[in-house]
Amino acid sequence: MKFIFTHPICLDESSAPGLYGKDQRHAAVIDMMDEALQDLLNKYIKLMFEKDDSGKEGYLKTLPTDLKPFEKTLSSNKGSFLVGDKISLADYALVLLLIHHQVLSPPCLDAFPSLQRYLKRLCARPNLHAYLQSDEFKNRPIIPGKRA
């Protein structure tokens, strides 16, 4: 089967050993985190396609409430990854979503030290760093009219 949307591609790729947790419990928590991230992504996408910036202030006002569970999860997992001690689908989704939000509002992570450290550490991983420096990533709009 050929997937044409990003999320199904990630789900298919994540079924490879290692990206979907070490057991069924980890897989269930990864699914839960991924669903929470999809909820936030859907709010973000809705904001991006509004005709004007009228919803931005309200969105940014509620963003800390949406980010708090991820901060708490990272803190309780010693800041390494969302689930377990290895990177997963949920981690990649969170990193990209955090990058998008920093373009939208650079200080959005100021109240979240675990998310800041996490993002910095994961963005420094060689393969992810190379992708983030690539023309493919840099030329992809993050906000309509804005690039990374």
Average pLDDT for all residues = 85
Q: How many distinct helices?
A: 7
Q: What is the CA-atom radius of gyration, in angstroms?
A: 15 Å
Q: What is the number of independent domains?
A: 1
Order of strands, widest sheet = 1-2
CATH architectural grouping: Up-down Bundle
Low-confidence stretches: 1-15
Shape: globular
Element-level helix/strand string: HHHHHHHEE
The count of strands amounts to 2
Taken as a percent bin, the fraction of beta residues is under 5%
| CATH third-level topology | Glutathione S-transferase Yfyf (Class Pi), Chain A, domain 2
Helix content: 55-70%
What is the CATH class name? Mainly Alpha
Strand-pairing-aware structural class: mainly alpha
In short:
This protein is mostly helical and 148 residues long.
How would you characterize this protein structure?
By secondary structure, the chain is mainly alpha-helical. The protein has a single domain (22-139), classed as Glutathione S-transferase Yfyf (Class Pi), Chain A, domain 2. The protein contains seven helices and two strands. The chain has a two-stranded antiparallel ribbon with strand order 1-2. The longest helix is centred in the first third of the chain and has 25 residues, at 24-48. It is globular. The termini are far apart. The model is unreliable at 1-15 (pLDDT under 50).
List the SSEs and their pairings.
Layout: H1 6-14, H2 24-48, H3 56-76, H4 89-104, H5 113-123, H6 126-133, H7 135-138, E1 141-143, E2 146-147
Antiparallel strand pairs: 1-2
